[in-house]
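Quick note —
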Amino acid sequence: MFFTRNKGIVGLDIGSATVKLVELKERKGGQYHLQRIGVEPLSPEAIVDGSIMDSSLVVDAIQKLIEQTGVKTQHFATSVSGHSVIIKKIDLPAMEPDELAESIQWEAEQHIPFDINDVRLDYLTLSDDEPGRETMEVLLVAVKREKVNDYVSVISQSGRSPAIVDVDAFAIQNAYELNNDLDPLKVVALVNMGAGVTNINIVARGASVFWRDISFGGNQFTEALQREFNLSFDQAELLKRGETVGSYTAADARKVLDGISAEMANEIQKTFDFFAATSSEGPIDELVLSGGCALTPNLLEVLRERFGVPTELLDPFANIHFKDSDFDREWLTSISPMLAVAVGLALRKVGD
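Predicted structure written out below.
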């Protein structure tokens, strides 16, 4: 399910704070055109720590997006992340595909810290088929079965067919690769900052070499503003986005937000330190940020100063065509980083 490709797919990113929908159409020459896009806020109690706590609220949000965008396509792709997702790259003795298919569950049991009966398992062979090669690289992905079922269920309850369940980190990489030239000499950290979880996918030599999810995101910024100024969650969200709330302005919020940005930088640094200690790759050359949290005022500047490398926001629509008469370019630019996962999902295809 994780690596299946499909035709006529709508990308649906079910996040903790918002549900995002993107539909693309591929035309001759491999050009992608934006067909539909939608963003629907989600109550904070709907999804907690990446787990769906109130499916009815999620279903309502998806149905609103379907109605607002007028999407007719039946097949939807979504993705998951967090502690219920395990990604491992393993080395195995070289074997034929049918032999691998028979032995993969036993191999997975040696590397997955969950009961194998409680997970949905998929794998992908990474090694080139070189004659005489004694080993092969295999990418294992295991997700708690309950989590997959919950995400599949809300799409089904919304009247659509859940065709693909991907992983957030891979969806971000799809969006990045479509819109950027991969430099094999650079080590690039793709940092996708959601409300509850931040996904880090480090790409080197044109391929992913390290993945990690950390439980830190936009909610930490919102909660800090709530505590500091005694605000409701919704008021703190407005203040976080730079709007004035009562007597509090963006300038009042800046010190609080910068403090949490520094904490975010510390969490990212821990991941980079672990990567450096366990990998033979060089240091991080570039940071590319996405997700709604990446739009937090001054966060990009704090990270750029902290890590001392080029740090930019991912534009998932840089190489996607659309008509100005169909979509407001300024609005799209202002929210594009939060749509990166949905774009990456919408790039999936059936049949290749």
